[in-house]
């Protein structure tokens, strides 16, 4: 019976991790409410989850708000640019949908290719901000280059991020999970992939 409540017991470790993810999800949602803070909130979320996958997280709340503050300026500027691009793409695709003829199809293909580049960059940019210090320009450039260089990982990340929302579409009764654990859970299991990719760019210290 005593072993059941041992902190090293696998069940207790699992429950502790689950509680951390629920609390982290709550922090993330609260920090996303102003909308313009979504970038900083996402960067802070990945800062914590990338530490969690290596058991380095420490205090969840303290770590989260430290990363939120440290990356606020860069992450917010990138998020606002992203939001503007999303709106532009949405309007462009809507207009193209009203057009007929080959010109519209050619523009559609070109726009689709550009939007793919944007998606590839976005997949990495906020975790990259959480992991490395750099300028906005270099961070965006590195995010795109890493996404292309590690294309199989990029595809895996996209599937890992999109799949839960597809599942919610077909099983709407699971919608409450969005407010309980969904965002932090996605960040947690994708952090294993991000850490595997990012560790290749961290210099090994010599003894």
Which terms would index this structure?
207 residues, mainly alpha, 8 helices, globular
Commentary on this structure:
With 207 residues, the chain is mainly α. It has eight helices and no strands. It has helices at residues 10-32, 38-52, 60-70, 72-97, 102-131, 136-149, 151-170, 177-198. The longest helix is centred in the middle third of the chain and has 30 residues, at 102-131. The chain starts with 9 loop residues before the first helix and ends in a 9-residue tail after the last helix. The mean pLDDT is 88.
Report the sheet with the most strands, covering strand number, pairing sense and barrel closure.
none
Radius of gyration using CA atoms only: 19 Å
Helix fraction, binned, reads over 70%
Shape: globular
Number of helical elements: 8
**What is the average of the pLDDT values?**
88
Determine the N-to-C terminus distance.
46 Å
Which segments are poorly predicted (pLDDT under 50) over 5 or more consecutive residues? Answer: none
Give the number of DSSP strands: 0
The class by helix and strand makeup works out as mainly alpha
**Helix-strand string:** HHHHHHHH
Hey, roughly how much beta strand do the residues contain? under 5%
Per-chain topology:
Layout: H1 10-32, H2 38-52, H3 60-70, H4 72-97, H5 102-131, H6 136-149, H7 151-170, H8 177-198
Helix pairs in contact: 1-2, 1-8, 2-3, 2-4, 2-5, 2-8, 4-5, 5-6, 7-8
């Amino acid at each position: 019976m005593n072993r059941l409540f041992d902190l090293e017991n696998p069940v207790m470790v699992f429950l502790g991790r689950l509680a951390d993810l629920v609390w982290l999800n709550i922090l993330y949602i609260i920090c996303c409410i102003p909308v313009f803070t979504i970038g900083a909130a996402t960067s802070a979320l990945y800062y914590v989850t990338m530490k969690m996958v290596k058991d380095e997280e420490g205090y969840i709340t303290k770590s989260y708000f430290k990363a939120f503050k440290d990356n606020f300026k860069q992450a917010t500027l990138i998020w606002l640019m992203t939001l503007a691009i999303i709106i532009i793409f949405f309007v462009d695709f809507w207009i193209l949908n009203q057009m007929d003829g080959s010109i519209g199809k050619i523009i559609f293909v070109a726009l689709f290719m550009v939007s793919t580049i944007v998606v590839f960059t976005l997949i990495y940019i906020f975790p990259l901000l959480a992991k490395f210090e750099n300028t906005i320009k270099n961070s965006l450039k590195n995010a795109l280059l890493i996404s292309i260089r590690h294309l199989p990982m990029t595809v895996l990340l996209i599937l890992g991020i999109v799949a839960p929302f597809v599942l919610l579409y077909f099983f709407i009764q699971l919608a409450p999970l969005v407010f309980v654990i969904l965002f932090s859970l996605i960040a947690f299991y994708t952090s294993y992939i991000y850490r595997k990719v990012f560790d290749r760019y961290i210099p090994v210290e010599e003894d």
